[in-house]
Amino acid sequence: MPTQMRMYVLARRDLSETYRLVQAMHALAQYAIEYPKEFHLWNNTTITVLGVRNLIELKIWHMELLKKEKIFSSFYEPDLDGQVTAIACYDDGRIFKDLRLA
Length: 102
What we know:
Helices cover about 35% and strands about 30% of the residues.
């Protein structure tokens, strides 16, 4: 049985809730810029924002998504010296099954 595709955004839980949400939306916008075709496929349907512990865990996810050859975009926050703060990925979600909501 096929799994439904949806937009997943990974955001750092070491940021305040408000800041985390803003960073998640930046990652989504970055995805739209970098992958307009895939963004159009998403068609503003389901979006799930998941939390990762901190910068280190988000970098680990970045490497994992590269290894699995997933299409994703990362957002690097200028106000935090260019740290990656969130990642957006249009996917079936199986890779993210152990993450909890942000």
